[in-house]
Design a protein that fits this description.
By secondary structure, chain A is of the alpha/beta class. Chain A is built from 13 helices and 16 strands. Chain A has an eight-stranded mixed beta sheet, with helices on both faces. A four-stranded antiparallel beta sheet of chain A has the order 12-13-16-15, covered by helices on one side. The chains are: A alpha/beta, B alpha+beta. Chains in contact: A-B, A-C, A-D, B-C, C-D. The structure holds pyridoxal-5'-phosphate (2 copies). Chains A, C: Its EC number is 2.8.1.7.
């Protein structure tokens, strides 16, 4: 085992799942945090206690429980805002990153909204990349279909980097939406450069930070983005909660998305006025306890320290890339160096289907990896492969677990020899 | 654990040494089925004479489960009657969709009982069924001609 | 205290919040379940255990935790389906009732979709009622604005019943969306009759069952509706989870709403095909643990028995209507008999603003009621009042708590005398 | 509890016996403010002479907090200088938006310190501020004339 700056054994004790055994006494080797992360006691207990003793609806209620819930819910917004260097009024709670991305997509081409930055029609262009998660492709396809706008994209090089060709972003581009870090390749994209190019032509830029915010210190101002989306369940927070950050001025300019209670100022039968952001985009009873759980997750991550987490994952990635190089007939899809990449390593094994790899790793070794196209089918088509096996690391992983993965892969090759 | 595993010796055997693989002539119907979620594909041909299945030939790519299932399908159907083979398909489908709760009828299924363990993995059930659904489709089409 | 068919003392022990004291030793008298309900241990513990030991993403994962989470999540769908007499493939999980209502609203007037039932433009009509929650008004206003369709509504009588005038539903009506039970008046609407009228002209009908499913046995087939929306947090379930039920054939005919992971079949850069319902409408990582918590809530409610809960609430409502009649200068807004009404009682007190009523009830007596317009401002405008005080009952309430409310109201009158 | 309550004797006193209520002439500016979430309304007039606030008259409807706040506003502003009155408004606003964490400056606020308890109830802060914001607005408009 290689030691890193984190006291991983202590951290693992915070996550109750690591105290369980899988059926047949297999230990759990969880290398699937890119899919969803495990939860520390702090998050679980914060949610339990709130549900048990302090729960009520927020905003509307004027009694003790209502005040306690509202304070906890809005306090979570403060925490999340602080975590990414944002102002609290710019933090919109959604149910996941996908809702956040769709919210932005639905802001464009709404005939009711005349702000020129958000009008969209034939001739206008939307730009994404070939390495996006489906959640950052399909909303834009649907938008293009509804409005007649054109969807364009940056390609990906053989090394798994963006091919920053000229002519993709043009004077006709209205919005550029791109992953901060790829959920398959691990590649960290040059988002500041992309923001520069987008702003140069008057376009807006949205960063899908689902895979970066959990793993690196992220400051939304420094990224020079207009919108940033991320999701609670990948950052040791609960399911059911996501975040859209946007510049206040843009939230004001955008039309409402979901209509309903809490997003209004006044309602008559024939018209309504809307609450200021962020509430304007939070229709109905929000994921109250989930936001509070995300606040606890932010406390937990901050307590450990994002820099330390980043450094630890870097060590794990270095170790994994080296170890996988020793496995015969294994090909890493994505950057093979540590430069501008995070702790997600995807690979293929010659002649063996990833589904078989994943199942045997799980079945025989308790190693949980993800297999398939990881909601990035176009990227797999680009590499001419139907699927990959993906190992993704987080603060609670050890080099010993990477050893277990490698042992498992050798066994897989024996089974299918 | 070994007993629970879905990688029965028999499945691996069929995967490594597929029976009847390759597309052959003559045939009455050819179908191409794809599982878009995992990319598994199969092209399958049937040659039927009256009530008798003369040949089931196929080619495809995918995981061991989908490939072995095609091999077992070939063995169980080629040479049997159409009606009999379709009842095997039905029993196999019932087993696969039973979420691991269904007892397999070994008399009907023969080698295909080895797939019982797959039924507990919803994500893999489609792999096992790919070729069997393709076969059913092909038989229907051949009858329609 | 009046005894009813439920063993309320035993039930109260299942809800940990009733073991707490409010600041200054006040007991908690929670009469705000119409806003959001409290949670039993079964729900809290089910969620805690899942988060601690079985959590992972659903659908996509092929390892033990993934299988456990998927089974629990899809098992919750089975439970919810069973609870309302639906088929599991017709149960779509959303984040709340508001998202469910918006999902249906966004299905109309989408230029990509040519199913004649869902086309919408100038000349077409949308029908709601004056007693709707904002979540069943604003989405339709936004839809009307986007498409040029006309929004119409049924009025409300002085008694708080729907005024079922002719000529509101016409040959031009495409969708009728109406509350099964009013969240202010308690009125249960004649939804079968409305469904008949809607279907007669070829329109679809959506029932907002947010206030009925928690309190009465509901069988979606018997209601003869096309869509039914409800929400987890009002039925002893967690926040962050709602339900849209729709006939399978309609879910097939509707265009996708939110795009992203898990709602697709196959994705290319320039087009996608979609998964069959219900997954087609569940983009991204769903509220996994929240759905599982809702499944536990359904188990809990089923264990107690919906008929028994309904009978208990009926007793409470009878008791409350009688007791409130004794309070001077108090006026109930809504039906004053038990006929076709649920356990929600709203009222005004002459010369005293509801905000003051609510605050003193809470401050001095620990009685939690809701004050304001309860997200039904048009209904309050109809009655010419800015706000009401609302007491709403559930399985854990007692007649003793209604006595406490009445004592509190007498005190309020003394303070402002 | 009584000490914690926001219904200080003084607030109730102002609610039951509002000071300076009613719209009066002459005036330099009239404004109408509404809190759409709870329906509270106020119409407020100011008469200014040079730097001196000669009269603040008002009418409105709403909860005890919003009504009492208007009465206290009348007392504190009428007869003082415009600059002085605006600094009272600023201090009152700071107190109300302090989420109960801010210490009130009694020298500046006078009777208005009775509202300190309201700051802990975010839903009620707007009620307390309604007339004060209307006053600020009216003063600005009167100066613009
Ligand atoms: C009748 C009615 N419809 C819709 C809603 C909205 O539900 P949710 O807040 O869960 O979106 C509510 C409750 O707030 C309601 O009472
Ligand atoms: C890069 C990226 N974008 C978006 C998403 C979607 O997030 P969610 O499932 O929370 O909506 C994911 C994860 O699934 C992701 O990895």
């Amino acid at each position: 085992m290689t030691s890193t700056s984190l006291d991983v054994e202590r951290i693992r004790k915070d996550f109750p799942v690591f105290s369980r055994e899988l059926p047949d006494g297999r230990p759990l080797v969880y290398l699937d945090s890119g899919n969803s992360s495990q939860k520390p006691n702090l998050v679980i207990e914060t949610m339990r206690e709130h549900l048990a003793l302090h729960y009520s609806n927020v905003g509307r209620a004027m009694h003790v429980l209502g005040a306690e819930s509202t304070e906890a819910y809005e306090g979570a917004r403060d925490k999340v805002a602080g975590f990414v260097g944002a102002s609290r009024d710019e933090v919109v709670f959604t149910k996941n990153a996908s809702e956040a991305l769709n919210l932005v997509a639905y802001s464009f081409g709404n005939p009711v909204n005349t702000d020129p930055r958000f009008t969209l029609g034939p001739g206008d262009e939307i730009v994404v990349t070939e390495m996006e998660h489906h959640s950052n492709i399909v909303p834009w396809q649907l938008l293009a279909q509804r409005t007649g706008a054109t969807l364009k994209w940056f390609g990906v090089t053989d090394e798994g980097r963006l091919d920053l060709a000229d002519g993709v972003i043009t004077e006709r581009t209205k919005i550029v939406s791109v992953a901060h870090q790829s959920n398959v390749l691990g590649t960290v994209n040059p988002v500041v450069e992309l923001a520069r190019r987008a702003h140069e032509v008057g376009a807006l830029i949205l960063l899908d930070a689902s895979q970066s915010v959990p793993h690196h210190p992220v400051d939304v101002a420094a990224l020079d983005a207009d919108f940033v989306a991320f999701t609670g369940h990948k950052m040791v927070g609960p399911s059911g909660i996501g975040v859209l950050w946007a510049r206040a001025e843009l939230l004001d300019a955008m039309p409402p998305f979901l209509g309903g209670g809490e997003m209004i100022e006044a309602v008559w039968m024939d018209r309504s006025t809307y609450a200021p952001a962020p509430h304007k985009f939070e229709a109905g009873t929000p994921p109250i306890v989930e936001a509070i759980g995300l606040g606890a997750a932010v406390d937990y991550l901050t307590g450990v320290g994002l820099e330390a987490i980043e450094a630890h994952e870097r060590e794990l990635t270095r170790y994994a890339l080296e170890a996988l190089r020793e496995v015969p007939r294994l090909r890493v899809i994505g950057p093979e160096t540590l430069e501008a990449r995070g702790g997600t390593v995807s690979f293929t094994m010659e002649g063996i289907h990833p589904h078989d790899v994943g199942q045997i790793l799980d079945d025989q070794f308790g190693v949980a990896v993800r297999v398939g196209h990881h909601c990035a089918r176009p990227l797999h088509l680009r590499f001419g492969i139907p699927a990959t096996t993906r190992a993704s690391f987080y603060l609670y992983n050890t080099t010993g677990e990477i050893d277990a993965l490698v042992r498992g892969l050798h066994h897989v090759q024996k089974v299918f020899a | 654990m070994i007993g629970e595993s879905m990688y029965q010796e028999l499945i691996l055997e069929h995967y490594k040494h597929p029976q009847g693989r390759g597309l052959r002539e003559p045939y009455d119907a050819e179908v191409h089925h794809v599982n878009p979620t995992c990319g598994d594909e199969i092209t399958l041909r049937v040659k039927v004479d009256g009530d008798k299945v003369l040949d089931v030939s196929y080619d495809g790519q995918g995981c061991s489960i989908s490939q072995a299932a095609a091999s077992v399908l070939h063995e169980l159907t080629t040479g049997s009657s159409v009606a009999e083979s379709l009842s095997v398909v039905d029993e196999f489908t019932r087993l696969m969709q039973g979420r691991g709760q269904v007892e397999a009828d070994e008399d009907v299924l023969g080698d295909a009982v080895a797939f019982a363990g797959v039924a507990k993995f919803p994500a893999r059930v489609k792999c096992a069924l790919l070729s069997w659904m393709a076969y059913k489709d092909a038989v229907v089409r051949s009858a329609a001609q």
